[in-house]
Amino acid sequence: STIIGDAVVRTLEFLGHTVIRQNHVGDWGTQFGMLLAYLEEQKAEEGERELSRELANLETFYRAAKQRFDESDTFADRARALVVKLQSGDDYCLNLWAEFNQVSLSHCQAIYDRLGVSLTPSDVRGESAYNDDLAQVVADLDSKGLLSESQGAQCVFMDAFKNKEGEPLPVIVRKADGGYLYATSDLAALRYRAGTLQADRMLYFVDQRQALHFQQMFTLAKLAGFVPEQTELAHMGFGTMNGPDGRPFKTRDGGTVKLVDLLDEAEQRAFALVQEKNPQLDEDELRTIARSVGIGAVKYADLSKNRSSDYIFNFEQMLSFEGNTAPYLLYAYTRVASVFRKAERDMASVSGDFLLNEDAEQALAARLVQFAEVLQNVADKGQPHLLSTYLYDVAGLFSSFYEHCPILSSEDEGIRNSRLKLAALTARTLKHGMELLGLSPLERM
User: Fold this and answer.
1) Among the ranges given (21-25, 43-47, 312-316), the one the predictor scored with the smallest mean pLDDT
2) Distance between terminal CA atoms of the chain?
3) Which of 60, 95, 291, 390 has its CA 20 to 30 A from that of 306?
């Protein structure tokens, strides 16, 4: 969601839109009682220094907390009590919760920075931000005559959403025990974004499997008057990244694959690959190239596919210098840059008219002038793969142009300048397009 959303946001901003990023993290709810209880226990037993080291691996910390919750009734009771205290604004619980959040979000930010995405700490507005408005959301739904009670829970039934038996599906906004759900905070968030942020278009980059949920939320938000009728609400769903067996990607022992481990391996593989191709480069430059190629390859695997489709994760394919991959695009840009190094010319200094006599020149030029149209399509549809496909086409057409139309060796100065100008436009288009996708172009590989 972060990678795809970042590419669409960059494109929207380039086209002149004001975009407000909202990183809706799951920083509230029942699981925090369990985590707070475990955090409390560990502080008492191990002290601050050991605790900070343990919190460094949040996955392990969460599993340990869950195990305590499952095994100890006393611990589980304490966890449930802490949820109630947290939701009621208890200072002690809020301080523990804030500490856990700070550590958690610092890990997230480190990954965002490594990925080169544009999310910052100030873009975080998690579920907790809407806690004070949840009771009002339910009250407002009630005042509009939309609430019904079902088995003690407060629900909304809409005719547009029915199960297989033709019965209306409930949107539960408050459980029988008084607790609130995702639907409640999502409605509060929609109202905040429409009323406070004055958004006239909202794009939700969330798993495709949440499609029904968002259809219900968007319909209900407008029905309740939380969002103006003319506001565009769009769920930009995406598919799953699968392993070779076609199922969601797992480690050999069946656990979840961590993004940080994928990035480490991608950089290591890219380093070996680049070192093999250019052993004369010093290590610092090799590391810089490997970072751009490795991180770019992982990101481009998401960006080059139709976002709603599932895909098979394959390092060999992602890091290949052939086909629609990040290394291929990055290399295509370096080829153009090398032309200007050989010519000892600056790309911006080329002048003269375009003289497009050859088929390869005309084909490349015709595709280059479609850049603005492609970007508008990405902005309208939230589909970064449209830009990926376009850049791949441009790179392929430049390769054909380079092969069939001598640039530096052309004896006619007008044609030589025209071809240099076409090459410079290609380079600018590739570079700008890759930057909009969040890739880091290189001058040489």
Assistant:
1) 43-47
2) 29
3) 291
- The tens digit of pLDDT for each residue in 216-240 reads 999 999 999 999 999 999 999 999 8
Task: Report the 3 state secondary structure along 222-287.
Answer: HHCCCCCCCCEEEECCECCEECCCCCECECCCCCECCHHHHHHHHHHHHHHHHHHHCCCCCHHHHH
Cα separation, 392 vs 267, in Å, equals: 22
Whats the size of the chain, residue-wise? 445
Query: What is the rounded CA–CA span in Å between residue 415 and residue 412?
Result: 5
Euclidean distance between CA atoms 291 and 295, whole angstroms: 6
Distance CA 347, CA 336 (A): 10
**Residue 252 neighbours by CB distance under 10 Å:** 5
The two tokens of residue 217 are 């939320």
- Residue 54's pLDDT is 61
Cβ-proximal residues to 197 (8 Å cutoff; 6+ apart), any chain = 20
Name the CATH code of domain 1-24+125-238 (choices 3.40.50.620, 3.40.50.1470, 3.30.2020.30, 3.40.50.150): 3.40.50.620
Q: Which residues make up the CATH 3.40.50.620 domain(s) of the chain?
A: 1-24+125-238
Beta-carbon contacts of 354 under 8 Å, excluding residues fewer than 6 positions away, are: 365, 418, 421, 422
What's the CATH superfamily of 259-436?
A: Isoleucyl-tRNA Synthetase; Domain 1 (1.10.730.10)
Instruction: Encode pLDDT of 4-16 as tens digits.
Output: 999 999 999 999 9
Name the DSSP class of 25.
-
pLDDT tens across 156-210, in order?
999 899 888 888 899 999 988 888 889 999 999 999 999 999 999 999 999 999 9
What SS3 state is found at 204?
Answer: strand
DSSP class of residue 130?
G
Query: How many angstroms separate the CA atoms of 214 and 311, rounded?
Result: 23
